[in-house]
Structure formats: structure tokens, C-alpha cells
Specification:
5 strands; mainly alpha; globular
């Protein structure tokens, strides 16, 4: 709309909060472009960020060498790995945003295994335990011990950490931080052994706390992953009986109430066997 009879869109969207470019044109967009804007009396972008280049298996991408990561390969990966979310995660996971990044199939499979074995496995464990031990309803926190504090703190800190990471364009951390919370939740479940607590009626209150805190943590991790895994994170939240459509982020970040009923767990990511490694 700039220079037109209806400049409303220009007035709404300019100046840009972030002007994102490739590093090879940084000079033009940080020297010439601002000079043009100055001459027109227009405000500058609030921030300019130059991203790096992608290579493939340590070499510059080339169709003649057959190592070009094009749309055809991305579509094939999406079909094999249950959608584009696995590709999105790897693209952010590969290296700090701004650096050059190297695509390797081995690293892609490692990133996918994080989604499968850390995130998907954590969600599945939590849902199975709540359905088996508490008839599908999240119990209230009861007996709390020092081992709970670390998970509670990590759960509560995630939204602040993600806000800082997005503000600083640390997009790798935007993918990793929620996954690390899921990893910590798996460790917490291993350490507290709810499957053992369930065998002793005298420890029912302790089991309630473990189940509640585990559910809060995996729910928060999935909410944190919505911008990175828009399909799979929303699917995981639906399994927790949390609907994302039309809801604000502040609503989704609220702790789950005691008595909240969860759904049945379904595999969030498909099992995929490759020639280089095996997803189990």
C-alpha cells in the first residue's frame, strides 16, 4: 500500500519488527536500504537479522551432485515421518539460527528420535498412567517431596525461557527447551517410579503428586512446541483433552485443574526404520 490511495496496510505493517535476510545480502539491507528509507523520511526496520546458508553432507548443494534438498525430498520426508513437523524441528534443531547449517540424513534421524523417544514417549507414559491408575482424571497434588521441586521449577520457567529465546532469535533453543522439559519429565518418572507407588495403597497421595506434576510438565512442553510442531503439538494436547483452536497462549499456559479428564494415548510419531539407524 505504500504510495497508493490506500496506505493502510503499509501503515499497519511498516516498520517491520524484524527484517530477515540471507547473509550474502546483509550489506545491501543494512546500508543501502536504510539510506533509501532515510531519504524518503520513512522509519527503519526495528531489527535486521541475517541467516546462514544450508549445505548438504558437508558440501554446497548442487543438483548435479544429487545432494540438493528440494521440495520433492521434503515432501518424501513428510510422508515418511508423519508430516512436516519433523522437518520443521530438524531445520531449527540443526544449529544456532544465523550460523551455516549442514543437512545430514544421520542428524535428521537423530532429531526425529528425540521427537519419538523423548516427547512422544513421555506423553504416552503420562496418559497411560493417568488412565490406568486414576481412571483418566488428573489427581490433585498431595504429598510433595524435594525431588518434585526441580520439575516444577523447569515447568514454570519454560514460558519465560521461550519468550527470551524468541526475542533473541535463538530459534534452536525454541525447539530444544520444550524437548528438554519432556526429557526431564521422563527422568522424573523413572526416579519416582509411579508404577511401584501404585502397588502400595499407603502411597496413593504420593502417586497423585507424581501424576499431576508429570501431566503439567508434558502439557507445558507441548504448548511450548506449538510454533515449531503446529500439527503434532496440537495433536498431543488433544490427547490430553486440551483444545488449542481459538485459545490464547495465556489460557494454554494455565496449569491443568485437578479432575481434568485426559484422553487415550496414541503414538504421536510413527515408528520409522532407516538404513542408518532405527527408531524404536
Amino acid at each position: 500500500g505504500y504510495g497508493s490511495e490506500n496506505p493502510s496496510r503499509f501503515q499497519k505493517y511498516w516498520p517491520a519488527d524484524l527484517h530477515l535476510i540471507g547473509k550474502e545480502i546483509l550489506w545491501f539491507h543494512s546500508v543501502y536500504w536504510p539510506a533509501m528509507l532515510f531519504s524518503l523520511g520513512l522509519p527503519l526496520p526495528k531489527r535486521v537479522f541475517a541467516h546462514g546458508w544450508w549445505t548438504a553432507e558437508g558440501r554446497k548443494m548442487s543438483k548435479s551432485m544429487g545432494n540438493f534438498i528440494g521440495l520433492e525430498k521434503l515432501r518424501a520426508l513428510a510422508a515418511r515421518y508423519g508430516g512436516f513437523d519433523a522437518v520443521r524441528y530438524y531445520l531449527l534443531r540443526a544449529a544456532p539460527f544465523g550460523n551455516d547449517l549442514d543437512w545430514t540424513d544421520v542428524d535428521f534421524n537423530k532429531a526425529y528420535n528425540e521427537l519419538l523417544k523423548v516427547l512422544g514417549n513421555c506423553l504416552n507414559r503420562v496418559l497411560k498412567m493417568i488412565n490406568r491408575y486414576r481412571d483418566g482424571m488428573i489427581p490433585a497434588v498431595a504429598d510433595r517431596e524435594s525431588i518434585d521441586d526441580s520439575l516444577v521449577n523447569r515447568t514454570e520457567e519454560l514460558s519465560r525461557q521461550l519468550a527470551a529465546a524468541y526475542s533473541n532469535l535463538e530459534l534452536q533453543q525454541c525447539g530444544l527447551l520444550p524437548i528438554e522439559l519432556a526429557r526431564a519429565t521422563n527422568g522424573y518418572i523413572d526416579a519416582t517410579a509411579p508404577f511401584t507407588l501404585a502397588k502400595d495403597p499407603a502411597k496413593a497421595a504420593r502417586l497423585d503428586t507424581v501424576l499431576n506434576l508429570s501431566a503439567q510438565a508434558i502439557a507445558r512442553a507441548l504448548v511450548g512446541l506449538l510454533p515449531v510442531l503446529p500439527e503434532k503439538a496440537a495433536e498431543g494436547l488433544r490427547q490430553l483433552n486440551i483444545e488449542t483452536s481459538g485459545r490464547k497462549l495465556s489460557d494454554l499456559l494455565r496449569p491443568l485443574d485437578a479432575g481434568h479428564r485426559v484422553g487415550e494415548g496414541q503414538p504421536l510419531f510413527p515408528q520409522v526404520e532407516t538404513g542408518q539407524n532405527k527408531s524404536e
